[in-house]
Amino acid sequence: MTRFVNRSRPHTESGARHLDEAAENDPLFIRATARTMMVLSAFHETDRPMSLSEIARAAGLDRSTTQRIVHTLRQLGYLQRDPHDRGYVPGIRIYDHIFDAMRLNRQLQPAVPLLLDLRRNVNERVDLSLIDDTRLVYAFRLPPKREVLHAMMVGLSVPIYCTSAGWSVLSRMPEDEARDLIRRSDRQRYTAQTLIDEDAIMAEVEKAGETGYAVAVEQLLPGEIAIGAAVTNTLGRPVAAVTISGLSSDWTPEEFARAVSPSLMQTVAAIGRA
Amino acid sequence: MTRFVNRSRPHTESGARHLDEAAENDPLFIRATARTMMVLSAFHETDRPMSLSEIARAAGLDRSTTQRIVHTLRQLGYLQRDPHDRGYVPGIRIYDHIFDAMRLNRQLQPAVPLLLDLRRNVNERVDLSLIDDTRLVYAFRLPPKREVLHAMMVGLSVPIYCTSAGWSVLSRMPEDEARDLIRRSDRQRYTAQTLIDEDAIMAEVEKAGETGYAVAVEQLLPGEIAIGAAVTNTLGRPVAAVTISGLSSDWTPEEFARAVSPSLMQTVAAIGRA
DNA sequence: TATAGCTGTATCGCTGAGTGATACGCAAGG
DNA sequence: CCTTGCGTATCACTCAGCGATACAGCTATA
Question: Tens of pLDDT along A76-97?
Answer without folding.
Answer: 999 999 877 779 999 999 999 9
